[in-house]
Design brief:
By secondary structure, the chain is an alpha/beta fold. It has helices spanning 2-17, 20-83, 113-117, 131-140, 154-157, 167-173, 197-203, 214-222, 262-271, 293-299, 316-321, 342-351, and strands spanning 181-185, 206-210, 228-230, 233-234, 241-246, 253-254, 285-291, 305-310, 330-336, 354-359, 363-368. The longest helix has 64 residues, at 20-83.
Length: 369
């Protein structure tokens, strides 16, 4: 009885397994298992390749880091040897320059243009003739026009002899020399009150015009003077620096807090404000770049200067103190002394080989002995 039941169960199971629907279902399941197997195998292969790549990249990165680290150590060692062969301490502290540093003190060489323009800084030699500074001056200096100037009063210029007729004596000194070289500091608009326009137009002189007032300098450029020109002030410190400048028309001047005559100069500028010649140029306090006179001369090749007009409203003495008279040749100075220490100027010029001639009411002439 039991054996017959078992046989019946086997026949029923075989009957079910022989069903076509079950066969199809099994085939589908088998296909899915195969697909899953292939997918997992591909993912495992990709993961293995990715990990191998990451390991290789990490190895290359570590190799590069080691290489750069070695190069960095070599550079540090070379830098230490260059800075101080006898001292290899990386913690060495370089002291700041003293606040009263003078332009001719020798300390360092690694200066840049920005620092040169915003002195004082310590230079290996005088910063006034640093090549970076001289190249910059040449780049900002306007060249001579090479033509006759464009003037508002061409005929009147033929009779113009400076602000108060000073030029008659100077022209006599030079015996109406032709093709000389001048410097006019405080050149104003290049025509009105000019101490050099007659020399240029009538005697073929050329030279350098220096004017710090930006608005007025643009007018000067429009005159197309046949001379170099630059929109800057003359340094009163012996190095290039930026200073505050009061653009008070012909009375414009550096705002020097250390000038003992500063209150009188300010009063003068305020008092004559209603009589300004170029009312189209606003009066304001601006930041102006100053260059040493010596630097300007070197940028031009340090030419022999026959005549220099120095009219800068109170800073004349300080500018004269910056000139290395043993390295330049300036034959004759016309200096406005009305707002400066006339005695100190005369003493300075006498020590440097000049004789003095008063030129009332505002000036003095100093000429080489």
């Amino acid at each position: 009885m039991n054996s017959s039941k078992t046989a019946m169960r086997r026949r029923a199971l075989l009957h079910q397994l022989s069903s076509p629907y079950l066969s199809i279902l099994l085939l589908v399941l088998l296909g899915l298992l195969i697909l899953i197997h292939w997918s997992v195998r591909d993912q495992l292969h990709d993961l293995q390749s990715y990990n191998e790549g990451r390991v290789a990249d990490t190895g290359r990165t570590l190799e590069m880091v080691g290489k750069y680290k070695s190069e960095l150590e070599n550079l540090r060692e070379k830098l230490r040897q260059k800075c101080d062969p006898a001292d290899t301490h990386v913690d060495k502290v370089i002291p700041l320059p003293p606040s009263d540093l003078k332009s001719d003190e020798v300390i360092i060489t690694n200066v840049n243009l920005k620092s040169l323009l915003n002195g004082p800084i310590p230079c290996e030699e005088s910063c006034a003739h640093h090549p970076l500074l001289l190249d910059h001056i040449r780049s900002v200096m306007d060249k001579p026009s090479g033509t006759s100037p464009v003037l508002k009063d061409v005929e009147g210029i033929k009779n113009q002899r400076g602000q108060t007729g000073q030029m008659d004596l100077i022209l006599k000194y030079f015996n109406n020399k032709k093709k000389g070289f001048f410097i006019e500091a405080g050149a104003w608009d290049g025509e009105d009150l000019s101490n050099t326009i007659y020399m240029e137009t009538q005697l073929a002189w050329t030279g350098l015009l220096v004017e710090p007032n930006k608005g007025v300098y643009e007018i000067l450029k429009g005159k197309k003077r046949n001379a170099h020109s630059i929109n800057s002030c003359l340094s009163i410190k012996g190095y290039a620096e930026k200073v505050k400048f009061d653009t008070a028309d012909v009375f414009g001047a550096i705002e020097d807090e250390k000038n003992p005559n500063k209150e009188n100069l300010l009063d003068l500028r305020n008092r004559y404000q209603n009589q300004f010649r170029h009312k189209d140029v606003a009066r304001e306090s601006i930041l102006v770049q100053c260059f040493p006179l010596y630097s300007l001369l070197l940028a031009l090749g340090n030419p022999r200067v026959d005549f220099m007009s120095l009219d800068i409203e109170g800073s004349e003495l300080d500018v004269l103190k910056t000139i290395p008279f043993d390295k330049v040749h300036i034959e004759l100075f016309l200096i406005e002394t009305a707002h400066s220490n006339e005695t100190a100027i005369t003493q300075l010029m006498t020590r440097n080989g000049y004789e003095m001639q008063p030129m009332p009411p505002f000036d003095h002439i100093y000429f080489k002995k």
